[in-house]
Amino acid sequence: MAFFTETLGMVLVRVYPADDPATAVVAGHGVTVRLQRGADGMAGTMVLRVADPDAVADGERAILAPNGCRIRLEHAAPPLVVPPVLPELVVTRAGATDAWGVGRAGMAYRDLIPSRLGGAVIASHIRIPGGGEVPDSVHFHDVSFQLIYCYRGWVEVVYEDQGPPFRLTAGACVIQPPLIRHRVLRASSDLEVIELGVPAEHMTTIDHDLTLPTSAHLPKRRFSGQAFVHFTPSQAVWAPARIPGLAACDTGVAAATLGKASVSIVAHPAVGDRVTSTPRLHHSADILFTFVLDGSLTLSTPSRTDSLAAGDAFLVPAGMPSSLCDLSDDLQLLEVALPGVFDSEAVV
Q1: Looking at beta carbons, which pairs linking 22-30 to residues 24 or more positions away fall under 8 Å?
Q2: Which of 48, 156, 195, 208 lies at 20 to 30 Å from 10 by C-alpha?
Q3: Which InterPro entries does the entry mention (predicted)?
């Protein structure tokens, strides 16, 4: 008993019979354990996820209970680790019908960066088949950065301290700061969103205690240093893009994330001549992901040339020269960069 209550820091919940205790129940670290004197069976292994492993069992991570049960102590909320980027040229196409799989809450997912760049990032094209009510719960993600861009249709969502539920419509996006509680409520039958998250593998936790919407409305609140952003096309202000000859609309993500990431919509300028090709450029971003929202183009790199259309995506690694040509008049791109500020220069 002392091992569980003193060494492991658990508490005694009940014991019986009183005159000759043979059974005890102890609880702690999110588990309840029944201890039975003279119980049959092999001693197994128990993993305890504790708030501070260094404060339990003198910091030992693997210990042996008196009955032979092996106890492994792990951090309940380990620090988020973003693996280093393993750079590569990535091109994914919308036409691959076998690329769709079923993910959380019945949503259909298509992987836009199959290698995940070594686990540094995940980018997904997501649909909710049939639309309607979504069987979602209040939850949050342990991420460094997460973007949701509504490509087609609409989705109704609600976020912690961000007011009543709202519809995210085509052309709009949100960034979900780390650990912000949220819930997907319902969607149109034609909903398609583009989601990008860092790192690729991150924990999603259900919050059974919080009810959304919350009574507070705190649009300037920061979650792990990042503010919530809900950008809509009506807020668009266009300026010259990093790609000569094109225009870009900043979504406010760079400011909200303190430069961790930037999200831009890139298209032909509203006035003036339209270019059909761009100079060869190289950039210094760790991740520069582009999704073709509309129109078509040809991506040219030293190793290959790819004709791309709406629904396709590409990622050119830092330092690799690339150019765009055969730009259609209706071209529109979603460009996501990490970090948000980086160099982009012409190749001489």
Answers
A1: 26/1, 29/76, 30/76
A2: 208
A3: RmlC-like_jellyroll (IPR014710), RmlC_Cupin_sf (IPR011051)
